[in-house]
Amino acid sequence: MLRAVSLLAVVMLTGPALARDAIDVVVDVAKPGPKLDRHVFGQFAEDLGTGLYGGLWVGKDSPIPNTRGIRNDVVAALKDLHVPDVRWPGGCFADEYHWQDGVGPAAKRRPQPNFNWGGVVESNEFGTDEFMDFVDQIGSEAYISVNVGSGTVEEAANWMQYMTAAPDAGWGRERAANGHPTPYRVAMLGLGNESWDCGGHMSAAEYTFELKRFAKFVHNWNQQRATQKIAVGPGGPKTEGYTEAVMKTWKDNKDWDWDMDGLSLHSYTVGKWPPSWPATDFAEPDYARVLKETLKMDELIRVNSAIMDQQDPEKKISLVVDEWGAWYAPTKGSHPGFLQQQNSQRDAVLAALNLNIFSRHADRVRHANIAQMVNVLQAMILTDGPRMVLTPTYHVFRMYVPFQDATILPVSYAAGSYRVEEFDLPRVDIIAARTQDGKIAVSVTNVDARRPATVQIQIRNAGAKRAQGETLAAPQVDSINTFDNPKTVTPKPVSAAIKGDQMTLTVPPASVTVLTTQ
Ligand code: AHR
User: Fold this and answer.
1) β-sheet bridge partners, residue 456
2) Can you tell me the distance from the alpha carbon of 438 to that of 451, in angstroms, rounded to the nearest whole number?
3) Does residue 92's CB lie within 6 angstroms of at least one atom of ligand 1?
4) Residue 194 annotated in active site
5) 46 Cβ below 6 A of ligand 1
6) Is 125 a catalytic residue?
7) Residue 462's pLDDT is what?
8) What is the pTM of this model?
9) Residue 377 CA: which ligand 1 atom is closest?
10) Do 451 and 439 touch, CB atoms closer than 8 A?
11) Three-state SS annotation for 324-379
């Protein structure tokens, strides 16, 4: 196993010897770019495995401390991430979900088999009102995916009424009768999910036919919060036809009485299907292979943005990467349909690289949702009964909070190269932004698993003498946090002096560092 130990000590070592090999970075404060929308840090919580049941929802009578059935430890941890929106109930599950099975008194809820995810019985105890309570408890917003595959326009329209109508109007009366008189706010509405696959195996033409009907008739009744409508888009190179068809449908119908705001893109770092890369106990070439694969996100966004530009040069429609992350072989002994996997320092680096890619496309990518929130795929949090552990990916999302709604600043540097076997990667990956409170935030990811990196960052007119933040490094690239050892991968405080316009710092191998000027 590759060792990257004793490197935490290197963070502040910035002497002249190291500076000789330093990477020069210039942050151009004078040329602010687009806003990095906070919704790029959105999350996905599907009814899948223990993502909801056990992970979020334990029920009111559980010995696990909870508020109205939702676990307090998970809520407290998620609050620190400032999660902007949560996508629910799927995923593939959404196209088999019938919302009326999950509202009203618990005894009247109708259980259903979860055909997509292990065939286990979904009790529907956690339904719309419980989801809205959860979103409220973590201070987030709802991104609802409606059932286009096996549902009807009427069913979806009624669901929106249930969520957003006044207590004396339409299905809003039902919601009020269930104890929730105040209309909910639905920030985003997904019109189907992967309609080219689990969402109904539709051709692009079949989908755009459905899109027009759902977009026109599924109304938001709550004037307090506009709802953005997100259409199904591509899920990899083979579904690019969707981007053209959906964008053309939008353009051709632009003056009609329906609209859409986003086009979804799904892309997992998976290699070949079915997922077989191990989440743990891997060596350096596997670290490099996975990161090389994840960098393909940039090209995927580039290709689809270019297609979108043809119909929408003003970039009105957002490219919504509402499923992304690493998808590995399931944890040995776990239910294969539950998509349970561990999360290592490699995933922390992978998360930072993807967030950086989104930031470089911030003019088009204004929304993304990592898959998924708890216990599923590249999760923030893992739970086991009453126990909870924060993953390395969680720490990256928390460290990146200053970038939410920040203004991207151009950064120039020669990244250098990190090579392992046939995998050639940029050695470092750096972004910078002006935060909402006027500070400058810089993120430095050292991809190189062997060498620390010294960066000399020039920030003209930074107006500060010091930057502070955290570094996330680990003993090994495959280090993980477990219930027994939850702090193996934990951020450490770091600070750097700004002398003149220059800040020099040395970061450990395979690490993510975020600093903000003080
Ligand atoms: O995130 C797991 C699954 O991956 C989702 O349900 C589906 O949309 C995608 O294929």
Assistant:
1) 24, 504
2) 33
3) yes
4) yes
5) yes
6) no
7) 76
8) 0.95
9) 1
10) no
11) EEECCCCCCCCCHHHCCCCCEHHHHHHHHHHHHHHHHCCCCCCEEEEECCECCCCC
Return all residues near 453 (Cβ < 8 A) that are at least 6 apart: 23, 427, 428, 444, 446, 506, 507
Give the distance (Å) from ligand 1 centre to CA of residue 116: 9
Q: Whose CA is nearest to atom 7 of ligand 1?
A: 91
Specify the pLDDT at position 352.
99
Q: What is the pLDDT of residue 237?
A: 60
Check residue 327 and give its pLDDT.
98
pLDDT < 50 stretches in the chain: 1-18
Quote the longest CA-to-CA distance of the chain: 73
Q: Given ligand 1 and candidates 47, 48, 52, 92, which is best to mutate, with the most ligand atoms within 8 Å of its CB?
A: 92
Identify the pLDDT of residue 294.
Answer: 98
Note whether 267 and 321 are within 8 A (CB): yes
Residue 12: the pLDDT is: 41
Half-sphere exposure of 10 (CA within 13 A, CB side): 24
Give the position, in ligand 1's atom list, of the atom nearest the Cα of 371. 1
Catalytic-labelled residue, pool 141, 194, 210, 284: 194
Tokens of 346: 């490699």
| Contact of 397 with 42, CB cutoff 8 Å | no
Identify the residue whose C-alpha is closest to ligand 1 atom 3: 91
* Cα–Cα–Cα angle for 451, 351, 368, rounded to 5 degrees: 155
